[in-house]
Amino acid sequence: MTRHRALTYIHIAAVLFGLTGVFGELIQASAAVITLGRAIFAVLALGLFARMRRKPLLGALTPAQLFVLVVSGALLAGHWVTFFIAVKVGGIAIATLGFASFPAFITLFEGLLFRERIRATEWLLLGLVTAGLVLVTPAFNLADQGTIGLAWGLLSGLSFALLALSNRRSASGMDPMQVACWQNLVVALVMLPFAVSQLPVLPALDWFWLALLGIFCTGLSHYLFVSSLTRLNARSAGLVIALEPVYAIAFAWILFSQQPTPRMMAGAALIVAAIVWSGLRKQTPNAAAPEVPAKIQP
């Protein structure tokens, strides 16, 4: 693995992450069905990639680790369901930008739950994200579909922040590929009661899109991300992944004519700038390493 190949891998992963909303738009099924199908195909893909890398996914886990994986898997299920609802209601760009607020939620939770002091630069980061979300909001009216979609996107970002903190605090020392596989397995089990009745009537085309979503936007993107980290540090990789909203907006514009307004573009610029700045902030090696599993489930 050369640095050039690692950079290529991480950029491909960012593009695949950006395509997630596209598949959410293409698949006509409910958010619950999309989440279930994505998880099933992701488990199959991750199993294949782990076999290619000769990494055991079913290694011995302690009861405490299993508990963490169950909780984080449930949070991942909530994150995906709310994200796909946001896509259905508000569109790809709004859903992705709502989700992109998660660094602000992480900063707030670290201060409130873990008593970590929030520095002035972090308050400024929160201000940038808030200003960006204000600009992205189509109308301050809960009857507006775009506003409702943004609210679901924010809920998606909130659940992802909780997932990130869960992984950071409890899943350190576990192999990221193993974490992702178990989390996706939990997602499938959690969503099965809510979506299994809809699977027999799912059109063949939706099955095709679900397979692409699970294999490429989840399994392959995860594999590329983890592989790139053999030559890139987590901060460098995170800066590239920060381009996900840009790719998502571009795909929505090109494929579905969901043209962003100048106001939305300005808001997106502020949010992406906040994400990049968050990644550029100085981190200690001990703080950066455990974040890897949390950064690979958009």
TrEMBL record:
Sequence intervals crossing the membrane: 7-24, 30-50, 57-77, 83-109, 121-140, 146-165, 177-195, 207-225, 237-256, 262-280
- Primary location: membrane
Q: Which residues form a coiled coil?
A: none
Residue ranges constituting the EamA domain according to the UniProt record: 7-136, 148-277
Membrane topology, as annotated: Multi-pass membrane protein
One Pfam family named in its UniProt record: EamA
Cite the InterPro entries for this sequence: Diverse_Substrate_Transporter (IPR051258), EamA_dom (IPR000620), EmrE-like (IPR037185)
Protein name as catalogued = EamA domain-containing protein
* Organism in which the protein naturally occurs: Achromobacter insolitus
What lineage is this protein's organism placed in? Bacteria, Pseudomonadati, Pseudomonadota, Betaproteobacteria, Burkholderiales
